[in-house]
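Take one protein record:
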Amino acid sequence: MGSDPSGMIKSLIMTTEIQEKSTMEYPKILVGKKALVSGVANKRSIAWGIAQALHAAGADIIFTYQGERLKPELEKVCEGVIDNPKMVELDVTNDDQLDAAFDTVAKEFDGKLDMMVHCLAFAPKETLQGGYVDTQRAHYAMAQDISSYSLAAMSRKARPLMQKAGGGSIITLTYLGAEKVIQNYNMMGIAKAALEAGTRYLASDLGPDNIRVNAISAGPVKTLAGRGIADFTTMLNHHAEKSCLKRNVTTEEIGGTALFLLSPLSGGITGEVLHVDCGYSIKG
């Protein structure tokens, strides 16, 4: 892939170190604003990079977690950064939990919500191998439900809370595999394509309520989810070598973009997919 593989690996290690230690300082433009953040799994999660940016800008955050087993890990992630973090259990495939979670958010935030961060995606491992043509019906349905439909389901629940707040901003995470064929991405690429289309339709539906909906198409990041993709290290190396900036994006940089899209600074932007990938997506 490159002429200096050892140097490339060193660069990737440095990038990962930057991701784990957020040093950015942000203006307090979100003081008094309420945010719901889903998808924080560990300190390398893109969702955690976003949450750190929102917290630094003054936002009050409620985190979602899937099942009591994962709650201690989320508490560990927040330790030393966010004191007494607010949390609510949410399995997006369970309508009763959706109702209960947003009831809790409404009570905690006095019926108002300004921002929602959707960082949820899953596809069975079998769908990331072989070819898309071999995808089983049940696996397809599961991937679309969790990775795409969940944005619509959560947005529907967030809508009345954002209406009461006078408007709001919703963001989700996607990847270049929604636009182009990426080896070993397969079913997830199909789900992300649906997610991107859903972003535009939701932006149209919710626009009259002054609710904006956008997506960030992030470059590959060394996360728990990323490690589920076969030959992921090769993908990281290739992106770093071919991108305009000759490196991979960090969760800190994605967090800064999310802060922009969730804040009033991007008030006229909705229905967009913004690439944050060090310029990889523009290269031929």
Residues 166 and 271 are 19 Å apart (CA to CA). The chain is about 45% helix and 15% strand. Strands lie at 34-37, 60-65, 86-89, 115-118, 168-174, 211-218, 273-276. The chain has a mean pLDDT of 90.
